[in-house]
Amino acid sequence: MHLVRTPQAVIKAGYALLLLAAAVPVLYRDFSSKTTPEFEVDKAAVLNNSIAKMTMAYACEDCLVPSVHGANVIEKLDGGLLATWFGGSREGGKDVVLWGADFSPATQRWSRPRHIIGPAETQTALGRYIKTVGNSVLVRGERGELGLYYVSVSVGGWAGSSLNVMRSRDEGKTWDVPRRLITSPFLNVSTLNKSAAIHYTDGTIGLPVYHEFIGKFAELLHLDSDGRVLDKIRITDGRHSIQPLLLPLDGQNVIALMRDTGPRPGHVRISLSDDAGKHWSAEKSLNLPNPDSAVAGLRRPDGSLLLVFNDLEAGRSRLALAVSRDQGQNWKTVRYFELLNDGKSEFSYPYMIRGSDGRMHLLYTWNRTRIRHVTFNDNWVDGDKP
Amino acid sequence: MSMYLSVVGQAVLVSVLIAMLAGWFVKDLRKLKTIVAVGVILCMLIPVNSLTVAQWLRSVAGDLSVLTLLILSNILMQRLYIFNLINPLSRQILLWGIMLVGIVFYPLALGLGSIDPYHWGYAPLLMGISLTVASVFSWFKGSRDLAVVLLLPLLAFNFKLLESANLWDYLLDPVLLIYAVVQNTAYIKFARYKKQGV
């Protein structure tokens, strides 16, 4: 070895320097790291006392492609909405791209869907093969910018998914180049998102995600305001629960409600954390049916929780709204958005937000051909039933 | 910054594959070096169906860890320069360590049970201390190359030379685990064969 000819003192000094450069930053970073921040709650805590009202429309009635799915929505700074979803010839197809549309607060109408990003642009940006794209979630950053976290697949099905993020500083008109999030040690598969992000008081973001490669379980990604991964926390394990919906109850307490992928009949699954998501209780089943389908929900300013779910043991042809007033332990179904129950129709993948005016906006897949948009207020939820 | 080491990884992986394939037919080292050099340039630059061969490989194999880069660089130096970058004994110890850690790590990280060791890699105080202690121990035991090798992933992690913010991705990847399992299995079979021969 050529090292033999180098003076021993130089070798030792070199090793000492390497040791310092390798070890000290890790030790320093860990000892100087701040305590885990609390959840931010009640950001849009406006109580809406207007008369009970519910309106139904479509975020895309003519969606330009045969199949659409996985919609999400965020309120824009002007009070309008921005929604994104994926669509193409079929779910998982190579022609599937992410579509977006804006809801104008002035006209109360949705714009024509526009192409946001697809496999080709993602492939060019990442320098690796991308077969298709899938679920997306819009997140408002600390400095007001929008982040679009979306799934892409290189090999295989959804189990081979990775997450990417791109940002917009003009409310979704233009987007910067996407970047991969490294969230898994095995070829960076499989991490998928579905539900809305939660925010911490220090400006960081909690993105609920799930894994469905060998196991099927829920996780929480802790991201900084630029979308860099700070931590990943396992919410559940095993093969029974995916697509977590996180509902912070206060700064420390949060519940995760999940889709049941276990043996039938399934039930909505729940897990709790009382330390801002660092540790989670063992999951259990709620007394709500779940036909292996995603749920959506939010916390209202009065502390009650809303949940949109398919209240069936099989199929997705009925979509209901339930309310809990005991932090998610017991639920009462109060309204139906879809009540066909024909076993064939599909009303699925709900996504719900509360606007700064206190109105709720619910988007969901309508028979895979349209994205339904329902707007309602608190009095419609709590008022007399038809 | 985070892309550079990934590109180096692609180049080294392609070089090793070409060196191994061409090595079957070409015994002249000078010719082999030329073939590897030309092959790497072609694989890194010429697109095939919109991606280069290196990018196609990256799509399948993912980004390589720092330890994989070192092991592959060692193979390349052996093949092209008949030179060991890492002492064979140190390399053997390293591959055993990788195999033992990898066999426990991957099932847990992919969901077997409630413990997720991958989570530890985001704030890797214990992992950092373990690597440092192992490195110092190796140094005083005389395995200086192993001592250096154990610190390089930590150094690369501090400088964020890969896309990942998780120390595990600087230490391990599936390509390395498979290589370690194959090499260690071959080593055991060889040792058994040698014993029988004696």
How would you characterize this protein structure?
Chain A is mostly beta strands and 386 residues long. Chain A has a single domain, classed as Neuraminidase (6 Propeller), CATH 2.120.10.10. Chain A is built from three helices and 25 strands. Chain A has helices spanning 8-32, 119-126, 378-382; strands at residues 54-60, 67-75, 81-88, 97-103, 114-117, 132-140, 146-153, 161-168, 179-181, 192-193, 198-199, 205-211, 217-223, 229-234, 241-248, 254-260, 267-273, 284-289, 296-299, 305-309, 318-324, 332-339, 347-354, 360-366, 370-376. In chain A, strands 10, 11, 12, 13 and 14 form a five-stranded antiparallel β-sheet that branches. A four-stranded antiparallel β-sheet of chain A has the order 1-25-24-23. In chain A, β7 (146-153) and β8 (161-168) form a beta hairpin. The longest helix of chain A is centred in the N-terminal third of the chain and has 25 residues, at 8-32. In chain A, 50% of the residues are buried. The mean pLDDT of chain A is 93. With 198 residues, chain B is mostly helical. Chain B has one domain. Chain B has helices at residues 4-23, 29-45, 53-61, 66-81, 88-109, 117-120, 125-140, 144-158, 168-171, 174-197, and strands at residues 47-48, 51-52. Chain B has a two-stranded antiparallel sheet with strand order 1-2. At the A-B interface, α1 and β14 of A face α3, α5, α7 and α8 of B.
Keywords for this entry:
heterodimer; A: 386 residues; mainly beta; Neuraminidase; 5-stranded antiparallel β-sheet; 4-stranded antiparallel β-sheet; 3 helices; globular; B: 198 residues; mainly alpha; 74% helix
Report how far apart the termini of chain B are.
Answer: 53 Å
Average residue pLDDT of chain B: 93
The largest inter-chain interface, given as chain pair and residues per side, is:
A-B, 45 and 56 residues
Number of strands of chain B: 2
Gyration radius of chain B, rounded: 18 Å
| Biggest pleated sheet of chain A | 5 strands, antiparallel
Instruction: State which percent range the strand residues of chain B make up.
Output: under 5%
Strand order of the largest sheet of chain B: 1-2
* SSE string of chain B: HHEEHHHHHHHH
